[in-house]
Amino acid sequence: MINKNSGILKNLVLVLPLTCLLILVLTLNAYGEDRLINFVGNNQRLIGDLIIDSSSFNFTPADQIELEATDKEIVLEKDREYFIEIVENENDESFLTIQIIALSERSEAEVIRENLENHGFTDNRIVFEDDLYKLQSGEFDSREKAEEYREKLADSGFEGWITGEITEPYELLIRDNSGKKIYQGPDINLDDAEFYINDTWLTGDFVLNLEDDRIKLDYFIPIDMAVAGNIASLENSHNQEFRQEELELLSIFLRTNLYGNAEEIFEKISAGEIDFNKPDSRIIDSVMKTQDNYIFYDGDIAYQDDFYPAGYLRTLFHWLSVDFNEETVLNDYYPEAEILNIMEYSRLETIVDARVQRGLNYKEIREETLRGNRNITVLELDLNRSNLKVRPFLANSTVSGLEDLVEIGRSNQALAGINGGFYEYSGRPLGIYMEDGNIVTGKVRDLVRSTLLIDEYGNIDIGIRDWNGNLGLEDGRDLMVSGVNQVPEDGQAVIINKYYGEQAPQLREGAVELVVNSQGEIAGINRSHFLAPSSIPEDGYIIQATGSKANILGRLSTGETISFENRFFPEPELEGDIVHALGAGPKLIEDGRINITSYREGFQRDIVYGNAPRSAAGITGDNKLLLVTVDGRQPERSIGMTLDELAEFMLDLGAEKAMNLDGGASARMMVRGFTMNVPSSERNIGNALLILPNM
């Protein structure tokens, strides 16, 4: 059996042994999700350090390099050889001291020095620098010792500060090939550098410094450049130019394994066992085409342990010389592996899974992504049970009310709930809203948007719905109502009911007003805008109309009957009459497929784009209602979701239909009187969707 310690693969044995090797040496990410997050956060760079065994080495810039963090401009020329070596530091004065004071008169400094000595501090000196006499005390070879001494001085009433410097006994020296000294210092910074070392081409950011008596190279190399250099080395070694498809698949394969084996690779580069060649534009373009793609297995990048065993390059070349494709590569790598975009990586963990009451469950889910974490709360209501029901409620039971979700829930004896649809600053719903068969608001600016409908039997449907009202007159004529609880516009008839408040709006000039009682009879007709606003009957309603509709209604008489009917288009396929409606949007899922209709529903960019706190409602295939909130705008805790990501999440929960609700600071969930998520800021809301006992 071949294992990860197996020896050299035989040249004549091609795909089958390679398959076994790749399966059996597969090693998943040993560092967990933090490694992936840090890797992406560092722009997908290979980061590590390498100890150079010798006290000197040579390198050749492949392009001009400007040394960083030096007092003067130093340029290392392209294609010229340079040598780096360890030399003894010529500066023999190296210590830290505590400076007590700096004075223009030496005599004054002498007085303070004498005072210091009287307190037992005898290691003092006066130094003349910058036209000042500086009184200093003590000499120390570490900052820790200097800080300890400074505190002793302070305890005796002598405040001071640490000054001076500690130089290492050795430094790094750069010479050119003529022996000329170019630079000397404790470290060398090569930012955005491209050079050859041991015939290996490298590019990225590098820092050379000393560790004990050896040179340490800290490297920060873009993984795609390392992949390109590796491919260029393969082509050069075998004198073969890979095809486009081969380049792309090879890029993914090498990127996956360079990710997990950077330390081993650089040790082999240092030892001269492998090298990278400078790639041409053809290779770089192919690598960049797949720049975020890696081979994943079970949620992690699946790299091989000991990626460069003896015979690897020869075996890989034979493998690439056969006719292969993505399916072949993945089957040879691991049967269940897949190529994924690293930016789409996520890991879900259910932190809380609890039953609120029979038929109602609550979950709190933590999602880790490479862009940040998310905190998600979910309510799942089994609509097949009759012990609970769901319905919307207005804040303060009026069209212009604002309350915290918890207060709305408590005043309506709700077990749980979520914020509802969009609303104006006053709390007025922006879109279709209906309670107990009473229409409260209609559509906004002729925009037809997603609406959650509930019929008299508790059945729920989600879809894009238009609405209007219909007045049935005694003579058989119908009159369309297009507004609710608002002042009528020109040529419009509107209905005004108890949700508006106690009194109807002041009648407009030229308008007609009908007062309709609970029996559907016209109890009064007003035609004068000089009259005081009419009282709204508790179980009836008022109709105000202008233009031609006012002319028609103005010919009616008190005592005549009039009927009002809500109409939804397209007509819902629910079993009973619609008694509740909650408009929001856009639609997220239709018939089990993602279908985001933000453009069709006329939503603005601030709702559609970007990561944000979100809320959503959905219906599953087995008739369960899903209510979801996603916290956002809290970078350290939860970054929110885009609408696309919200739709994907709802689909993963099993939603066959789903719609977006109001989000931002309004996104909040309540269970048994407590807010379960962490909203981005304090906010009262205009309406809510609540779950309560079915009594």
From TrEMBL:
Residues 90-165 form the SPOR domain. InterPro entries: NAGPA (IPR018711), SPOR-like_dom (IPR007730), SPOR-like_sf (IPR036680). It comes from the Bacteria. Keywords: Glycosidase, Hydrolase. SUPFAM superfamilies: Sporulation related repeat. PROSITE patterns: SPOR. It holds the Pfam family NAGPA. GO terms for molecular function: hydrolase activity, acting on glycosyl bonds; peptidoglycan binding. This is Phosphodiester glycosidase family protein.
